[in-house]
# Entry
Amino acid sequence: MSLERRRGRSRSIDEEENVEASRPLEPKVRRNHSSVFSGQSATILAIGVLFGYVLLPMVLVETHWGLFYNDVDVQFKVTPDPTRLLADVDIQARLMEDQKVLSSQSLPTSTSQTVMKTEKLPDHRRKKILVTGGAGFVGSHLVDKLMMEGHEVTVLDNFFTGQKKNIAHWLHHPNFSLVVHDVTEPIQLEIDEIYHLACPASPPHYQFNPVKTIKTSTMGTLNMLGLAKRVGAKMLLTSTSEIYGDPQVHPQYEGYWGNVNTVGPRSCYDEGKRVAETMMYSYKNQNKVDIRVARIFNTFGPRMHPNDGRVVSNFIIQALQNKPLTIYGKGEQTRSFQYVSDLVDGLHALMNGDYDGPVNLGNPDEYSVKEFAEYIKRLTVSNSEIKMLEKTQDDPSKRRPDIRLAEEKLGWKPVVTVEDGLTSTIKYFKSVLDEAGEIIPTGPGASKPQA
Ligand code: NAD
Ligand code: UDP
# Structure
C-alpha cells in the first residue's frame, strides 16, 4: 500500500515534470517580456502614458467646464428665454385642462345617472385596493364606494358573469385600473387590501361549469392568499350563507357548522366556499395574513345580471313582461333579502374593523318564495300568473341570518327596507328591458358546456 502511494507520488512528480516540459510557451513569453522594453517600445509607451494620463483628461475637463459654464449661463446669467416661460404656462394650462376632462370622464351610464367626482386623499391615506370580481353585481357597487372615497382601485375580473358596463363609468378615472385576468392563475400586484369576490354566485351560473367553479374558489383563493402574504395585504373573502347548506338551525348564526351535501349540484359552490374559508384561517394562523370573512345572505339590487336566474331578477323580469312567475317547488322555502348598498357598507365595515372571525351579512327580513312572488307582482303592478315548476335538488328549505355578531362587532345592520330596495331594482330592470326589448329569464336547469 505504502509502496503504491510512493509509486503514486513518484509518478505524479514525473508527471509534473512532464507537464512543465510540455509547456514551451511560458518560458517563451517570459523571454519575450524582456524584449518588450527595447528603446523603441519604451518611447511608444511613454507617449501613450502622456496622452492617456495628461492630455486626454485635460481635454475632457475643459469640455466639461465649458458645458458647466453654459449651464450656469442658462440658469443664472442669461435672461430667461421668454418662449420657455410661455411653454411652462402652456403646460400648466394643459394640465388643468386635462384634469378637468379627466374629472368629467366618469361617464354616466344607465346605472349611474350622475357624473362621479371622487375624494382627493393624501398619499398616506390613499390605499391600493384590489377587488376581484369587481365587474360583477356586488363587486361593482363596492368599487363605487372605494373609488368615491378616493382610493386607487384595481378590478380583476375574467368577465364570466361580470359586465363591462358595471364599471364603465370608472374606466377613464386616473385612480382606476382594470385587469382582465382569471384568479385561477397567479398574479403579481402591489396592493394594500384585497376584496376577494371573484366567483359566480347564482345557481345556474355556478352550476354551468362546476369544475371551474371549484377551481375558482380553491385555486383562486389560494392565489389571492399567496399574493396577500407576499405583499402583506389584508384580505377579505366573500363567503356565503350556502356554507350552512340546508340548515337545521334557524336563523343561522356563525357558530353553526351547517348541513351540506358534498356531491349534489350545489356542492361545487358550497364546498368551494367552505374550503376557501378554511384556507383563509390556515393562512392567518400559519402565515399571519390579516383576513376577514363575510358570509353573505341573498342580496339584490341594480346591476344584477338579467340572466343570472336568481329569484329576484327572474321574478322582476317576468313580472315586468307579464310572463308567468316561475316558482320551483311549492314556494314554501324561505329566503331573506338584503339590498346591495347595505352589503357594501357591511363589507367595508368588516374590512376596516378589527374582528376577524366569520360574520353574517344579511337582512333578516324573511319571505317564503310564494309570498315573494306575490309581493313582486304587487310592486310591478303585473298581470303575470304564478307557475309552479319542479323543485330543484338540495334547495335549502329556509334561510335567515342571525346578524347579532355584525351588530356587536361592526356596529352594522341593514338600513334599506326590502320595499325601497325592490323599487330601485325594478326601476333598473325597466331600463334594462327598454334597452333589450325582451329578456327570457334563465330557468332552473343550468346548461352545461360540452365535454
Ligand atoms: P357575480 O356573478 O355578479 O360576480 C362575480 C364576478 O366574479 C363576476 O364579475 C365574474 O366575471 C367574476 N369571476 C368569476 N369567476 C372568475 C374567475 N375565475 N376569475 C376572475 N373573475 C371571475 O356575483 P355577485 O352576486 O356579485 O357575487 C360576488 C361574490 O359575493 C361572490 O363571491 C359570491 O359567492 C358572493 N355572494 C353573493 C351573494 C349574492 O346574493 N349576490 C350571496 C352570497 C355570496
Ligand atoms: N327560485 C324560484 N324561481 C326562480 C328562481 C329561484 O322559485 O325563478 C327559488 C329557488 O328555488 C330558491 C329561491 O328561489 O328556493 C332563491 O333562489 P336564488 O337562485 O335566488 O338563490 P339561492 O338562495 O337558492 O342561492
Summary: The longest strand covers residues 234-240. The domain at 120-436 is CATH 3.40.50.720 (Rossmann fold).
